[in-house]
Design a protein that fits this description.
115 residues, alpha+beta
Length: 115
């Protein structure tokens, strides 16, 4: 079962948005920072795995510089206990994802992969 949620970390002025699979791993992740709501991350597990399996380290480095780094671990456990955490609809997540990807340079150039 896929779940979409967000959590706010006030001390870092950061909103994290996740699409997580049934085991709690991030499938896609968006991070938005500051009062100007600047996207700093919009990373996809599908793209990261493709780069890992088919490209060199330089390609992975370029991806991470453009789209940030996907969470490395289960993100689902305990998110509901965060003070400012909310479950999202898929539509809400897709809107945030599309805005973040556009702001960070559009779709990843990963051998034809979309998001």
């Amino acid at each position: 079962m896929t779940i979409w949620f967000r959590a706010h970390y006030e001390d870092e002025d950061l909103w994290q948005y996740f699409e997580a699979d049934g085991e709690g791993w991030a499938v896609r992740q968006v991070e938005i920072r500051g009062v100007d709501s600047r996207p700093v991350t919009a990373a996809s597990l599908k793209e990261v795995l493709h780069l890992r399996d088919h490209c060199d380290r330089a390609a992975m480095s370029r991806y991470e510089q453009q789209y940030g780094v996907l969470a490395d671990g289960r993100v689902f456990d305990g998110w509901e206990d965060e003070l400012e955490a909310d479950e999202l609809s898929v539509e809400e997540f897709e809107q945030v994802w599309a805005r973040a990807r556009q702001a960070l340079g559009g779709q990843a150039d990963v051998a034809g992969l979309g998001s």
